[in-house]
Amino acid sequence: MADDAVEGRPKSNGDRSERVAFVLGGGGLRGAAEVGMIKALADTNVQPDIVVGTSIGSINGAIAAAGPLDEMAHQLEGMWSHLESSGVLRDGLMTRMTNLVRHRTHMHSNTAMRELLLEWLPYHDFEELPTPFQCSAACIETSSERWFESGTLIDAILASCAVPGLLPPVEVDGQHFIDGGVVNSIPISRALHLGATTIYVLHVGNIETELRLPKNAWDVAFVAFEIARRHRFHHDLEHLPEGVAIHVLPTGVDPNGKFNDAGKLRYNHSASIQISIDRAYNETLKYLSVSE
pTM (2 decimals)? Predict the structure, then answer.
């Protein structure tokens, strides 16, 4: 199945017998593509009944769930534009090395990300969100997936985004959590658990692009991450209950050819943010318009 492969037909949630879910996956700054998808969904009046997200998808998802989708799409684009000039994951080399020596487990503080969320999230508690929203993280103590659906949004999102080695584990309720993408990078299964009948998958791309044999340490890390990410995604697609329609929205990235680009691991490279937003918007809008 290519990046733009779909099953079923997209539609808004005017039919109350259906339950529309937005599923937002992880992938660092490549999550800008999800903003373009949200803009296209808003422009075609596809509205979610539930939103679930992992890692960067937890940030995009929480904002998408915070109000009318067209307004939240505008809010998201503003936040991502702000990322190009913000200090989130943009520490200098000396700061990164100092953090690594001092803490031994991570190169960045999550202070800048916390400040970003406080500035751009319209609400700070799950219960305040107009659309039900959940996000996931991986619990260190229990070696398991944890879904957050109540209480403080900020800590839950920081936990979901705590990339191992880059950001510190986040303590919530006496337990410590790392990036939700470690256990469920594109959480289709959670949407099904919550009763979704129509699922829109918002992802960062490269779901089907062929991997090649690793040639260096960067390749090894990248291939390991991609295999883990794709394995569960494909398993969930292959085991969809009968009657569930799923739409894997296109990023606009060419799915053909081999794909092992160490540059994809440049988590703090923001130069292509607007390009990614626009490309995903145009391709998703084209898909939704043709499929109606």
Answer: 0.84
